[in-house]
Specification:
Blueprint lengths: L10 E9 L2 E8 L3 E7 L13 E8 L6 E7 L2 E7 L4 E6 L2 E6 L7 E5 L7 E5 L3 E10 L12 E8 L4 E9 L24 E9 L5 E6 L4 E12 L6 E11 L10 E9 L2 E10 L3 E7 L2 E6 L2 E9 L13 E9 L5 E7 L2 E6 L3 E8 L4 E7 L6 E6 L4 E6 L3 E6 L7 H4 L3 E7 L4 E6 L3 E2 L11 E6 L4 E7 L1 H17 L8 H4 L2 E3 L2 E4 L4 E2 L1 H5 L6 H10 L4 H13 L19 E4 L5 E8 L9 E2 L4 E11 L18 H7 L10 E4 L1
Parallel strand pairs: 33-41
Antiparallel strand pairs: 1-2, 2-3, 3-4, 5-6, 6-7, 7-8, 9-10, 10-11, 11-42, 12-13, 13-14, 14-15, 16-17, 17-18, 18-19, 20-21, 21-22, 22-23, 24-25, 25-26, 26-27, 28-29, 29-30, 30-31, 32-34, 34-35, 35-40, 36-37, 38-39, 39-43
Helix pairs in contact: 2-5
């Protein structure tokens, strides 16, 4: 049989693989894709006794050429795809699964067996040879890195291949103050050893500490991002970590001063290249067209960077510049959360809810264009697209607002419409775009758009988009399960998921699907499953197969990527109407921050390393009040913790 390959890239590897439920032809392409064909029986198109090829699928694994090698593991056939993102291909529920391996670049692999390393794999890299075996791990890989101090903020910079982590500990324990620091061992006014915060630079692979930059006494970190600043005059780029701080004077109830620090990574060291004093605490930071926008008390302020003459100062490096205030927008209680998308600035105010602003570079100004008048105590906000915004508030609820695209007047256009409400049961304090799993999709299928959120109790959540057809199907299933499954103690599902707030009466959640309830279908007795399937007009076997394959295939309606702590994690699915739908795929309560993600819908493949020869991993932390004792408890809980996240119609939360 002859079958055309997609695109113009040459194939680099071909392999026939016989799995338990079918035979496949796999083709490793030069651009990092794997093209698979199901091998059928003989037919008119199979001249000369050949076999028909069907169900062509192309899955992008990486960017480098793929070499395919078959091997057996745990009495099952697997295929190892060696590339810049090594992957193990296996079969489950009649479909191929792709699971990322926690190994670096791999050029070749072959099975290896000896007395010292039985049933192992030998993996060759550019400069290494690794011997190990493949383990099935039914949860996220979690690697704990002891810091010895309480972590408050974290950010990742892929360009410098480093993490910046802000920790707090006894000032006397701050070793290696680094350039620009004020020294260790500082004492408080009463002569006692004071707590000090510092920015610690860590290698992204080994997590070894490379450098540390201490903050001033009584200075508390409140924001940390990695971004690229651009000089206003020359356009020269500066890749750096930007830190926002608040300084609370003795006896004061609120921060009246703070700083914005730009720390560049040069030769594995943190260098202070620019700073700006602020008249208030810096609650949040976000990048904006080569600038940085900050929420400072009741103001939203845009800062621009200007490179200097290289003279610098103590602890400064050549090329040191200045951060200058470009424009200020007032009218907030406290600008607690700030997010950007293009020229749009979305602000989550402590008491006034979500507002949308437009930055005008021609006039160097910021103006408000829309606002949600249903005031909420905000804890987090995310920009889903130009017109839709996801918010979290202090009563443990999520909600979605969007612009009125059909507004007949300017007044209506300036009012954000409420599109969805849902009760999570935990305070969400950070929402970011990201994923805990590999986003593998067919060549003709757009990968799922996912967001991560973190809560004050240490949970990490995933928000994933699902197709409209899947949402309609799950909505019918949810409605029937709500009538079939009874809550513990008689608690009604609708009552638990209702939007609850001390500012208004409880209202039933809408445009949401609760995935925790939906998954209970698999725990029902077979007779009950058949009854539920018949009620929604679905075949029982097809329903079970579709649900199970969705948990083990990137093509399923609902992918799963979660840790499995005790007690079992809650799940939820949500839709907010429109052209697409989103599904909440579970919440890993009490989960540690993962060093690496799990393959979507399948057990992540872990390489247990035996030996290596060669030449040479959220916000979402538990919140604490810190030094700012005068602010409300909601504010103190919300500002602490940091994370590594067409029209929207739905979203999923983990």
């Amino acid at each position: 049989a002859a079958e055309a390959l997609p695109g113009e890239i040459m194939p680099r590897s071909l392999l026939f693989a016989s799995f338990e439920q079918g035979d496949y032809l796999l083709c490793g392409m030069g651009d990092g894709r794997v093209v698979s064909f199901l091998c059928g029986g003989e037919g008119p198109g199979a001249a000369g006794g050949g076999r028909l090829l069907s169900e062509r699928k192309a899955v992008p694994l990486g960017t480098q050429p793929v070499q395919l090698t078959a091997f057996n593991c745990q009495e099952a056939r697997h295929v190892f795809a060696a590339s810049d993102r090594p992957t193990v291909v296996s079969e489950a529920a009649g479909k191929l699964r792709y699971a990322h391996v926690n190994a670096k670049d791999a050029t070749l692999m072959c099975p290896f067996h000896c007395e010292a390393f039985p049933d192992s794999l030998a993996i060759a890299g550019l400069a290494t040879l690794t011997i190990g075996n493949i383990d099935n791990i039914q949860q996220l890989h979690v690697k704990k890195i002891p810091l010895g101090e309480h972590a408050r903020r974290i950010a990742h910079d892929p360009e410098s291949k480093s993490f910046a982590v802000i920790t707090i500990g006894e000032s006397g324990a701050v070793a290696d103050p680094g350039p620009g620091g004020e020294g260790a061992g500082a004492m408080d006014d009463d002569g006692a050893s004071a707590e000090r915060e510092r920015v610690r630079l860590m290698d992204e692979e080994t997590f070894d500490q490379l450098d540390a930059f201490p903050l001033r006494p009584r200075e508390t970190s409140s924001a940390l991002i990695a971004t690229t600043l651009r000089s206003v005059s020359s356009g020269a780029p500066l890749r750096c970590y930007v830190v926002g701080t608040a300084i609370v004077a003795p006896g004061a109830t609120e921060p009246r001063a703070g700083r914005i620090l730009a720390l560049a990574v040069l030769d594995g060291r943190l260098r202070l290249v620019a700073e700006a004093d602020t008249e208030g605490g810096v609650y949040d930071l976000a990048p904006l067209r080569g600038r940085v926008v900050a929420g400072i008390n009741q103001y939203v302020t845009v800062f621009a960077w200007e490179d200097g003459d290289g003279a610098g100062g103590p602890g400064r490096s050549p090329g040191t510049g200045t951060l200058a205030c470009e424009c200020v927008q007032a009218g907030h209680i406290i600008a607690l959360c700030v997010q950007t998308r293009g020229d749009f600035i979305v602000v989550g105010d402590l008491m006034k809810g979500v507002s949308v602003h437009l930055y005008r570079p021609d006039t160097h100004s910021v103006e408000e264009i829309a606002r949600d008048y249903g005031a909420n105590w905000m804890t987090a906000v995310a920009v889903l697209d130009d017109d839709t915004y996801l918010g979290a508030e202090a009563s443990h609820n999520l909600f979605v607002v969007r612009k009125n695209a059909e507004a007949a007047s300017d007044e209506d256009a300036g009012r954000l419409e409420l599109a969805a409400e849902f009760h999570v049961g935990d305070m969400v304090n950070r929402i970011r775009f990201g994923s805990l799993s590999m986003q593998l999709g067919d060549a003709d299928t757009r990968p799922l758009q996912t967001l991560l959120y973190g809560t004050v109790n240490g949970a990490i959540g995933v928000v994933a988009q699902i197709p409209e057809e899947a949402f309609a199907f799950l909505a019918k299933l949810q409605a029937q399960l709500a009538r079939t499954v009874h809550g513990v103690g008689g608690l009604k599902h609708a009552a638990w998921r209702s939007f609850q707030s001390d500012r208004r009466k409880a209202s039933e959640a809408y445009n949401f699907i609760d995935g925790d309830l939906v998954e209970l279908f698999l725990d029902l007795p077979r007779a009950k499953q058949t009854e539920v399937a018949a009620a929604i007009g679905a075949d029982h076997e097809e329903l079970c197969g579709a649900w199970k394959s969705s948990r083990g295939s990137t093509e399923g309606r609902l992918g799963e990527a979660r840790a499995r702590p005790e007690p079992p994690p809650a799940r939820a699915l949500v839709d907010v109407g429109g052209d697409a739908h989103w599904a909440v795929v579970g919440r890993a309560a009490g989960a540690a921050v993962p060093a690496s993600g799990a393959s979507q819908g399948s057990s992540r493949q872990a390489l247990s390393q035996g030996c290596t020869w060669g030449s040479t991993g959220p916000r979402g932390q538990r919140c604490e009040a810190g030094h700012n004792e005068g602010l409300a408890r909601r504010l103190a809980m919300a500002v602490t913790g940091e994370g590594a996240l067409g029209k929207i119609s739905g979203f999923a939360v983990d």
